[in-house]
Amino acid sequence: MTASIRTFSGAIALIMGCLLLASCGGGGDGSEALDSNGTDGTAPPASTSVSGVAIDGYLHQARVFLDVNGNGRFDTGEPESLTDAQGRFTLTASTSQAASHAIAAMGVPGLTIDQDDPGKALPGPLWLIAPVGHPGVVSPLTTLVAARMASGATLDSAKAVVQQDLGLGSVDVMKDFVAEGNKDPGYAEAHKLAGAIAEILIEIERESTTSTTLLNKLAALDSRIGELIVPNLAPIKAAPSVAGARALVVALMEEAQRIYSVGGSLLGLNGDGLVLANGTDTVSPDRGATTFVFASRQAAGSPYNVTVQAHPGGQNCQVAAGAGTVPSRNVTDIAVTCTNTSGVLSGVITGLSTSGLVLQNGSEELPIPTGATTFRFSAPIAVGASYSVFVKTQPIGKTCSVANGAGNMPSTGVSGVQVTCSANAYQVGGTVTNLIGAGLKLRNGAEVLGVPAGSTTFTMSLPVAFGGSYSIAVEAQPVGQVCSAANSSGTMGAGSVTSVQITCASNMYTLGGTISGLKTDGLVLQNGSESLTVRAGSSSFNFRSPIAFGGTYAVTIGQQPNRYSCSLENSSGTMGGANVASVHVTCSAYRYRLVDLGTLPGCSYSRATALSSDGKVAGDSCAQLNRSRAFLYANGRMQNLGVIGADETSESSATAVNNAGVVVGTSTGDTRGFIWNGRMERFPAGVPAGTFPGFTAVTEIFPQAINDDGVVVGLLDGLPPQPEYPGTRAFVYQSGGLRYLGHSADGQTMFGAYSINREGHVVARGDFIDPMPSPYSPYVALFDLGSGAPGVVVGAFIHACQPRVSNADAILICAGHGYPPVTFVSVGTARTQIPPLVPEGFVVGNGINRWGEVVGRAGTQSGGFSDGFIYREGETLALDDLLDSSADGWHVVSAADTNDDGLIAATAKYKAGNDRAVLLVPIR
Length: 924
What we know:
This protein is mainly β.
């Protein structure tokens, strides 16, 4: 054992402290009450996405979670995720949680698949951790690195110690050794060592109880690495495969424990039911087996005593060499020998006064002389074998019936068969209640009667003689039901018996099925009065309430998932005699119905530029002299908003609209822009001199956005004291007053505000005004009008798109310099790039909703802009591909905006015609 391995136990206490206090840098006295997000509840924490890969081989369906409680177990409320087939995971947590708590992975027996052996699930539980702040790879090797860091080592020094202890040279133990092993044999050796360490972790988890702490498990890991891995590095690395390395460590663990199996040989076992016992441990070998082994292994030197707890049917078994003390090897010399036994079949006869009676059992026929009171079959019957005595031929003038005539031969023989003969015989029958399934069989003596499904009565075919006995029993149960008999036995009187009662009850079965394509939450399935909420990513479902055999079910969509549409197959039917798992739910992102909004009278084109939260569309079309005119589309019609002033050559264009139908935009009739609320007005009426810092007067105003509270933001030009390039300023218009938006947190001037959400959060563009840097480097800042605090810088941009903010504070920005543009969605500190539609292409976002769906225009460097697109659930899709069949011939050129209901305002062409403003309506 190397010195560094020996120091693992000294680090374990620190590991516990780091996990429980969320970091190793202090933590307070722990008296504050924290919620499940790890905050004090005073304000929602900023969230972030944490991604990585869990590997032994790649672990599929492993539970990965942020260990907020530091106890090494998953607790309700902790951020979690299931890994995909490549071991990848992504979970969402607060920024503070992600920075200060360890990522843990749990392999679940019977569910988690190790892709090193993809044909079967893990046989035992597997737990792994990664160092705090390094979630990219979670593996057996990162578990050792985390332990070294807990002793005060840096990440680099901890990695170096693990590399040295495991003889891995320069191999980076924090990397994906599965992927790297295809390029570097050193990583292939790391893969074998990781598999060997995983077997130790599985064994430790098997030995753990609810009282075993993470400290206990890490202490056990420390001890066994030194005992089993370090001394055996050479043979582990030389193993022909990862499976061979794992098998070697399993053998080493068994040898270290000195436990051995107890078993032996079987001779002549041709019956069912043998049970062998060794103390409290039992084993039940199958018919024809030639060997047996008890599941529990025993330590060398412990006693064993194997006995027969139950003999097989028709046989008697004896044990030889069944007791002793376990040597330092497996016990294999116990011998169990089974031999067949047989019995005599006989009985009594009453009322036989004539000749001709012949009884039969199997192939043996037995003639009975007149007046006989007993009978005995000559052929012996093996113990456990079945017998069935019936009347082959009735005596002259008599009817004989058999009671107690069927069963399995006991070791004592059978002497209780009763044959009763009488001059008169009567039928035996009764009622059947609630028989739905097929397959019910009733027995009386040697007769077996099949009862069809749905029957309400039955009558046995063979009559029973007067004074004879009858006993109706259920020979075989119907499919999906259990039936019982009442008033079923007695002595035949002077009339037929109709009082036997057969009552059937239905078994209960579960209802469920499979799901494909579900990427969002919100799906609710319904069966009768039961609702079942299904989470995003689910591949199967089961209703909680079982359904009785014969009962009906009808699964329906109670609620479609967010922004997706689901359909059902095999959704209704009648419950059979097994669980139903054939209902299938297929989900896909919804498609769109295209609504042509038309044009203003006499106009050849129209274009959509803005969309309100309740579906109103604003844009521009044309009027006199084919000049552009702003329009508002609401309640099924397009309205001309006009221009400022009476000049017919003036033009207007809308930039934003709210759910009250208030439109803002620009008009060449007035450089101050316009606001329309039933009529066209200048925006605003006037601005006092000196209102804006650095300006002596305002010359032009351009409103860019308006929210549902009527707050307007935009940009304006002004005259500075010196005759130099005047620049612009971002403004806010609220409660009739116009004011400067403010500076960013680093003191830079905001030269334009472009978007405002319902919470009063504004995104604006800023610039380094003095001095102007090179290269040109503008950026985006987010302002909260409620707090009045300086804007927080969230990213850089270029001129290809204007920044937008959603109602969930997701920000759409374009970043970079030059051409083509690169478009991102920014949420807190996390930034996601929107991929292009085609290689060498690019996208420019125009609108974003609270779900993070982005719409805009897409193109290629060679061909310019050509397609409207939507980005959702990690995919960029051409809107043309999502239109329903009624939109054949239409091409969406560009999408201008989208709202939280999924509506999209866009511009499209019909068969290469002129631009038309359209509204894309989700088909749910």
